[in-house]
From TrEMBL:
GO terms for cellular component: mitochondrion. Residues 44-153 form the DUF4460 domain. This is T cell activation inhibitor, mitochondrial. The lineage of its organism: Eukaryota, Metazoa, Chordata, Craniata, Vertebrata. Pfam families: DUF4460, DUF4461. Residues 209-511 form the DUF4461 domain. It comes from Myripristis murdjan.
C-alpha cells in the first residue's frame, strides 16, 4: 500500500541564481529579504493526508479489490496490475520534493455495489463494468477525486475534506502552513538542468513508445538478463523432470508468475524433502503439484504446497492425502447429482491464476447448491442442457452468462427462476462456447506462426489478455517482423516491462513503428 506515514509539510529549497541572470519573479511567490540573505525554504502543505486518502478511497477498493474476483482470473489480474500502478502513482506524489509524475493509464473492472447500482446498463457479460482512464493529477486529493469520478463512485464524502483543504490554503496567517503549486520560470530549468514537469507531462501525452523504439532501448538488457538466467532455467527443467519421474507426478505447476530463481528454490526444497523422507512422498503418485500460498488440495484435486510452509507441514499434508481423495470423490458425486437435476449441464471450477479454492470449500459450495435444488424439482429434459457448463459463485445474487459461454450461478438461488434463465439462454450459451473454441484454435495457430516466423524462444500471455486480443497482437507482430525479438521470451500483457529473467512483456495493443523508427 502507498499509504505510509508521511509528514504533510515539505520544504522546497530555492537555489541561488548567479549575478546577472534574468529571473522572472512573478512565480506566485513573495521573496522576503532579511539583510543580504534570501529565505531559502517555503512551506508546502499536502492536499490530503494518507489517513484521509484511505477513507476516501474505501468505496473504490470495495468495488475493485482483487479478492472479490475469485472466479474471474482475467478481471482479477487487470485490477491487480492497475492497483499496483495506482499505488506507485500515489507514492510518487507523496515523495518529498517530487517535481513530476508521469501520466498513468489505468483499467479496472468494477463490480456491482450499492453505490454503482445505477450503472447496470454498462455491465459486461461477466457482470462487471470496464473503466479506463488516465491520471494527470499533481496531488493526492485530485487523484482520489479523479479515481472516484472515473469509476462513477460517490464523492459526497469528499466535501468535508475539500472544504478543510481550501481553508488551510486560504488562511496562512493563522499559523498554519499554506499551499501553493510551485511553478518555476522556464529560465530556472535552463540554468539548473532540471526537467520541466509541465513539459514532460505534455510530451507524455503526445508521445507513446512504439514497439520498435521500446525494443531497441530494452532488448540489450533483456538479452543480458536472459543469458544470466540460463543456468537456472536448465536447473529448473532438470529438477522438474527428475521429481515427476521419481514420484510419478502428473505435473508440477505454479499458481503465480514467480521468477525462475524462485521456482528453482521451491523444487530444491521439495527435492531435499524427498531425499530426507522419501516415504512421505509416496501418496503423491498420479497427482499434480501446485506451488501456491497455502497447503492442501484445491477444487481441481491438485496438491497445493504453500511456499511459506516448512517440510513438517508438507509432510503432514502428504499423510492426509487419502482423506482428501475421499472428499474429492464426494465432490464428483455431488457434481453428477447436480448435472442430473440441471439437464446435463456440468459444474466446473476455473482457477488459473485466481485465488485457490480448497476442496473442502468447493464441497461445501456444491452441497449448499444441491440442497437448494432438491426441494424444488426442476422440469428440465435430462439432456436438454448437455454440453453446457456452469460455475457457482457465493457472492452473486442473480445468474448471468459469461462471454466464454458458461453460466455463472449464485449458490443460493430460486430454482424456478434459474430454470427459466437456463432455458432462455441455452442457445446463446452454445453459440458463445462455439465462438470461444474457434478463437482458442485460431489463437493457438497464431502463436505457433509467431514462434516459427519470429524465432521466439516462447510466446505466452497474461490471463487478462483475451483470445481476440492475442490473435490481433500476433497478426501485427507477424506484419512487423522485428529482428530484435529473435531468441527472446515474450509475454503479451497490458504494459511494457523487462522481467528479472529477461522475459519481455509488451502490451497487446502496442503502437506500430513510425517512419522515424528505423532499426
Amino acid at each position: 500500500m502507498f499509504f505510509k506515514h508521511w509528514n504533510i509539510v515539505d520544504c522546497v529549497k530555492i537555489v541561488d541564481f548567479p549575478k546577472g541572470l534574468s529571473v522572472n519573479l512573478s512565480l506566485g511567490f513573495n521573496f522576503r529579504l532579511e539583510g543580504k540573505h534570501i529565505a531559502r525554504h517555503f512551506i508546502q502543505q499536502r492536499a490530503l493526508s494518507g489517513a484521509d486518502a484511505i477513507n476516501a478511497l474505501r468505496p473504490f477498493y470495495f468495488a475493485v479489490h482483487p479478492d472479490f474476483f475469485g472466479q474471474y482470473p482475467r478481471e482479477r489480474e487487470v485490477n491487480e496490475n492497475s492497483l499496483k500502478r495506482l499505488n506507485g502513482y500515489l507514492e510518487n506524489l507523496q515523495k518529498p520534493g517530487a517535481q513530476s509524475v508521469q501520466p498513468t493509464k489505468l483499467t479496472f473492472y468494477v463490480r456491482e455495489t450499492k453505490e454503482s447500482s445505477d450503472m447496470q446498463q454498462d455491465l459486461l457479460p461477466s457482470g462487471f463494468r470496464s473503466v479506463s482512464f488516465t491520471l494527470h493529477t499533481k496531488d493526492v486529493l485530485s487523484t482520489v477525486m479523479d479515481v472516484l469520478k472515473s469509476c462513477s463512485l460517490p464523492v459526497e464524502h469528499m466535501k468535508g475534506l475539500k472544504a478543510s483543504t481550501k481553508t488551510a490554503k486560504t488562511s496562512p496567517g493563522a499559523g498554519m502552513p499554506f499551499y501553493r503549486p510551485i511553478k518555476w520560470d522556464k529560465t530556472y530549468y535552463s540554468f539548473t538542468g532540471f526537467r520541466d514537469p509541465e513539459q514532460e507531462i505534455q510530451q507524455a501525452k503526445r508521445v507513446e513508445p512504439t514497439l520498435s523504439l521500446w525494443l531497441r532501448n530494452n532488448e540489450p538488457e533483456a538479452t543480458k538478463k536472459h543469458s544470466i538466467s540460463l543456468p537456472r532455467r536448465d536447473e529448473l527443467k532438470r529438477l522438474k523432470k527428475e521429481l515427476c519421474q521419481k514420484f510419478d507426478l502428473a505435473d508440477i505447476r505454479w499458481q503465480r508468475s514467480w521468477g525462475v530463481t524462485h521456482r528453482c528454490c521451491q523444487l530444491q526444497s521439495l527435492s531435499r524433502l524427498s531425499q530426507q523422507n522419501p516415504e512421505a512422498l509416496i501418496n503423491l503418485q498420479g497427482h499434480t503439484i501446485v506451488f501456491t500460498d497455502q497447503s492442501g488440495m484445491n477444487a481441481s484435486g491438485h496438491v497445493m504446497l504453500g511456499t511459506m510452509d516448512v517440510h513438517h507441514q508438507w509432510t503432514k499434508l502428504f499423510e492426509r492425502l487419502p482423506s482428501y481423495r475421499s472428499l474429492q470423490q464426494q465432490t464428483e458425486w455431488l457434481k453428477e447429482r447436480i448435472s442430473l437435476l440441471l439437464g446435463g449441464a456440468q459444474v466446473i471450477h476455473v482457477e488459473r491464476l485466481g485465488p485457490v479454492q480448497p476442496i473442502a470449500e468447493h464441497y461445501s459450495t456444491l452441497n449448499t447448491f444441491h440442497k437448494t435444488l432438491m426441494p424444488r424439482c426442476l422440469r428440465l429434459h435430462p439432456r436438454s442442457l448437455q454440453g453446457l457448463t456452469i460455475t457457482l459463485d457465493n457472492n452473486r445474487y442473480t445468474p448471468s452468462l459469461h462471454e466464454m459461454g458458461h453460466f455463472i450461478i449464485p449458490t443460493r438461488c430460486d430454482p424456478p427462476k434459474l430454470q427459466a434463465f437456463l432455458q432462455s439462454h441455452a442457445h446463446e450459451a452454445r453459440q458463445r462456447m462455439h465462438r470461444t473454441n474457434q478463437l482458442q484454435a485460431e489463437e493457438e495457430a497464431a502463436v505457433k506462426a509467431c514462434l516459427q516466423s519470429l524465432s521466439l524462444r516462447s510466446l505466452s500471455k497474461e490471463p487478462s489478455v483475451t483470445s481476440s486480443q492475442m490473435i490481433l497482437c500476433c497478426k501485427r507482430l507477424l506484419e512487423q517482423r522485428s529482428p530484435l525479438m529473435q531468441g527472446l521470451h515474450i509475454c503479451i500483457s497490458h504494459f511494457y516491462s523487462v522481467m528479472q529473467d529477461g522475459d519481455l512483456c509488451i502490451p497487446w495493443d502496442w503502437k506500430k513503428k513510425m517512419e522515424s523508427d528505423v532499426f
